[in-house]
Amino acid sequence: MALTTLTGNITKTEGAKRSPNFTSLEKEVLVDEIVANLSLLFGQFTTKMTPEIQSEAWGRVLLKVNALGVVPGGRKLSEIKKKYQQLKSEVKAKGAANKRELNETGGGESALSQLDDLQEKILSTLPTVSVEGIFGGFDSSDKPTMKTTTARNHVPRCTPSSRSEEDPSINESPRPTKRKLPETTLYQLQTRQVTLLETQVKELKRIGDLMQQRNNIEEEKLKLKRKKFESSQFPNYISN
C-alpha cells in the first residue's frame, strides 16, 4: 500500500517495493520449463486438455522458478508469464530488424542480430510465420522458383475409323440371343395340380387323425372323472 507524507508544499509518495529483475538462471529455468511443457501451457482446450490441467502446469513452472530462492516469498504467476512474453517479444524484434536489414542492404551475417542460447530455445517454440526474417531463415517472397520442363512422348491415337478399317469385325454389332424357355403343356399343369391336391388331402387327414386322438384322450379323462365321482357318492353301490 502506498504511503503519502506531506512536508509543507512538497508531496512525497513511497510506492510498494518492486520485485528484483530476473536473473539469468531464473530466465533459463523459466524457458526450459515452458519448452518442456509447451503443449500443456499453450495447447487448445479439449476433453482431455482442460483449464485445470493448464493451471497445474503453470503452477509447476512457478514452483521451479521460485525454488531458486531469488525473491523472498516467491514470484507471482503473472510475473513469470509477463517475463516470458517479454522474452518472446525480444526474439521477434530481432527477427524484424534482421528482415529490414536484408530488404534494405542485403547485409551479411555480421550485420544481422545474433541469437543467444536462451533466445534460440524460445525461437524453437514460435510459429514459422512469427520468426520470418531471423538469421538462418528466409523470406517467403525470396523463395527460388524452379521451372521444370517435361518431355511428352507422342503416342499415336487410334481412331474408331482406323480400327474398323483394320478389323472389319469391330463394326459388327453383337446379335441379341433369345433365351429359350422350357415348354409347359396342359397335361403337366394338371399333373402338378393333382399332386398339390393329394398333398393337401394327406395333410388334412393327418390333422384329422390328431384331432381324433385328442378327442379319445379327452373322452378317457371324462370317464375317469365320472368313475371317481360315482365312487365318492355311492361307495356301497360300487362295491356290490
TrEMBL record:
It comes from the Eukaryota. Residues 137-183 are annotated as: Disordered. It holds the Pfam family Myb_DNA-bind_5. Residues 18-96 form the Myb/SANT-like DNA-binding domain. One of its GO terms (cellular component) is nucleus. InterPro entries: Myb_DNA-bind_5. Involved in transvection phenomena (= synapsis-dependent gene expression), where the synaptic pairing of chromosomes carrying genes with which zeste interacts influences the expression of these genes. Zeste binds to DNA and stimulates transcription from a nearby promoter. Self-associates forming complexes of several hundred monomers. This is Regulatory protein zeste. The lineage of its organism: Eukaryota, Metazoa, Ecdysozoa, Arthropoda, Hexapoda.
